[in-house]
Amino acid sequence: MRGFLTRFRNCVRRRPTQAMSDQNIFAAVLDKIRAANTALIKDGALPFGIDQSRIVVEPPRESAHGDMATNAAMVLAKDAGAKPRVLAEAIAAKLRSDDLVAKAEVAGPGFINLTLKPKAWIGALRAVLAAGANYGRSNVGGGSVVNVEYVSANPTGPMHVGHCRGAVFGDALANLLAFTGFAVTREYYINDAGAQVDALARSAFLRYRQALGEDIGPIPEGLYPGDYLKPVGAELATEYSAALRSKLEAEWLPLVRHRAIEMMMGQIRNDLLALKVVHDVFFSERSLLEGPRDQVSELIAALRRAGYVYEGRLPPPKGAPVEDWEDREQTLFRATAFGDDVDRPLMKSDGSYTYFASDIAYHKNKVDRGFRSMIDVWGADHGGYVKRVQAAVSAVRAITNTPTADLDVKIVQLVKLLRSGEPVKMSKRAGEFVTLREVVDEVGKDPVRFMMLYRKNDASLDFDLAKVIEQSRDNPVFYVQYGHARGQSVFRNAREVLAQLPAEPAPRASLLAGAPLERLEDAGELALMRRLALYPRLIEAAALAHEPHRIAFYLYDLASDFHAQWNRGKDASYLRFIIQNDPQITMARLALVQGVVTVLASGLGLLGVEAPDEMR
RNA sequence: GCGCUCGUAGCUCAGCUGGAUAGAGCACCAGACUUCGAAUCUGGGGGUCGGGGGUUCGAAUCCCUCCGAGCGCGCCA
Hints:
- The longest helix has 26 residues, at 249-274.
- The strands form 4 sheets. This protein has a 5-stranded parallel sheet, sandwiched between helices.
- Helices cover 46% and strands 11% of the residues.
- It contains 19 helices and 15 strands.
- By secondary structure, the protein is α/β, with parallel strands linked by helices.
- It starts with 24 loop residues before the first helix and ends in a 9-residue tail after the last helix.
- The structure holds one RNA strand.
């Protein structure tokens, strides 16, 4: 891969459905609103069959507006031929009789603001305690199969820092999708065909000769100079001794190439493992060409039959002048028929296929394997490639008659590596990259993973090696992990009052579920319960939008609420979680802490970050 | 020149696929605490959401157009 970053993958777009209302209180309230509307239809206040799909229930920005707000009246008003505020009042009147609703007020242009009774939030906490690690799990995915392709770094060298972000992003997104009911396949596309791996083979061959004692001098231009190929050379020397040296390149190259790629991929997998990034499938580009069938030729033939391939000429590129531009007729994919800016070549001048040709075949292969939803995670330097692959997928849709096949390409922006605010120097030209391994070894996988996800994927990111291991509030990784550790510390201390408190989460949660939760009436406690209640909704939205960063921000907010409540106990000792002479309130508060800890652990788990029992 | 991604507080960034008076952290200001219920806490000031048009009940969010930044621009992957 040429760029500093590599390619990755992303994508499906799906409407939120009626969710599991036992966990998701917003979905439960939406059901109540629909029921109210049904009653209004019976009353004749709303027409039969009115479209309710645009109704949403969401937390208002302004907490003074209550616990949740709905736009129901505003989206129904037009079809109902009623004024939004009048309709809102009618719906609100129905809702007021609901057991969980404390207040239903009409506001602004026709919002209905709802305030729920504390028992609603206590119910939410009970749901957390009952579900444990499964709290937030959903089935919006409905078991549909999704392919998430990420990393896919060229097997020509070790992974460098630029690969971190896509790797972590893809991995966390896959976790998130699996958690929300998608059948996820995590895939790595190995670019093991083409000129670059031949260059790798030649470089490795030099190292092989070197390992046999030859003086190879400087590594020629165009080959890979890195020391990381020395072990490959040594391995080849052990395996073949001098046998390869006398062979022609055509003979040794495939052998050396195969062995070198194998060893590079071994190292890459190893490095990924250090970041806790895993894949289910490593898909070889070469297998498309050299498998039982030549899938690339087949594909081009199929596209040609459909009229999407032709022989023609391309205008020279504008802007940056291309030195050896040669105007010639070539085999082109009619990408412009699918929204791309220009038609794209499928064959090089030497008669071999372009990378793009393989890539179309690769995406068709995914569709053939049953994936209707494909997500590609790529580095920003491949942004210019998106349109043509989207065009390719459109063509694949057409020739395979699979209208539902969908590709979402997620672009992750550059990561700027800093140390205490100063850019970390690396010389691209000399091949001096900071490797992924070096970074993980220096700061640990958790800071890398969390910080890579504590930003929207398409925003660029500064990663400061010094700041991410700081133990202070300024460091979100620490702040969130400390929240979890602090919760555990409360449990440890609580044994002074409740000697029987189990150390294991599940039995502890079930014991605490029996606590008198109605005694949780402090504003901070209610705020925490509200925050916990948001989690299932947040998870679903993050999954559907393919945006795992939302989890990281949510966790920060939750940890922040939790630390705040803890701190209130410093000034107001009656608010402490552990009250020596009142085991009942202690139990109730421990239940709340259990809820917090459960959700922190769940969210961190999705991000692939540890939830430690103590900070060391 | 074209395309893609961005542009939100002094700085770093959120803003839940169009909702109400746009949020958080840092920094700044003012208080509190003098400590293992440690790895600070509470409150406050601070904004033409890059500019200008448009769409509609309603726009940071969608469309158009400028400005600015990053990335990319046959036969590399």
